[in-house]
Every structure is written in C-alpha cells, then in structure tokens.
Design brief:
Elements (H helix, E strand, L loop, with lengths): L8 H25 L12 H16 L6 H13 L6 H17 L1
Helix pairs in contact: 1-2
Length: about 100
C-alpha cells in the first residue's frame, strides 16, 4: 500500500497535517542554518496543535461505529454456513487486544 495514495479522506487529512508540520520544521532549520535567525529560540505553538487534534477528533467522530458492509458480509456467510474462523485467528486477536490494553 502506498501511503501517498490513501483514498480515505480522514486519513488524507492526518497525512497532510504531518506533512505540513515537517515542512514548517524544515523551513525553521533552514533559517537557522542560513543565518536568518540571529539566536536560536524555543517556540511553543499549542493552539495550532490543539486545533489539529480537535479537527482529527471531529473527523474520527464522523466515521461510523459499525461497518455495515462487513456486517452484511458476515451475516451472508453465517446464513450460507460458509463462515469459518480458525482457533488460531481467535487466539491471535485475543492476545493482540490484551497486549494493546496494557499500553493504553
């Protein structure tokens, strides 16, 4: 999967935020190295970060809680008797989620 060809609008917005931050950092470093800035100063820009986080939260809140297409697919498989999940897959998901819970 190529990161530059993301189809999801929310994921594209996140990617653009990161790219913009990288561009701002690169420009700041160029100014410092080029002598455009007389002395290094620290800058904290919490409002921009807070706005970015809020935009991301808003975008995520617009996503559906249930993926209807996936639900329909599983329901069809259950009706047809073709739904098959191995014990290894179930165990893997359980272990993965419990490890994730430790870090969250």
């Amino acid at each position: 999967m190529s990161v530059s060809r993301i189809q999801d609008g929310n994921a594209q917005m996140v990617q653009q935020k990161y790219l913009r931050n990288d561009q701002v950092k690169a420009e700041s470093e160029r100014q410092v190295q080029g002598g455009a800035v007389s002395s290094p100063t620290e800058r904290v820009d919490l409002s921009t970060t807070a706005k970015d986080i809020q935009q991301l939260k808003d975008a995520l809140s617009e996503l559906p809680d249930v993926r209807e297409a996936k639900v329909q697919e599983v329901q069809e498989k259950l009706k047809n008797g073709t739904y098959d999940v191995s014990a290894d897959q179930i165990a893997g998901k359980m272990v993965g989620e419990s490890i994730l819970d430790l870090f969250v």
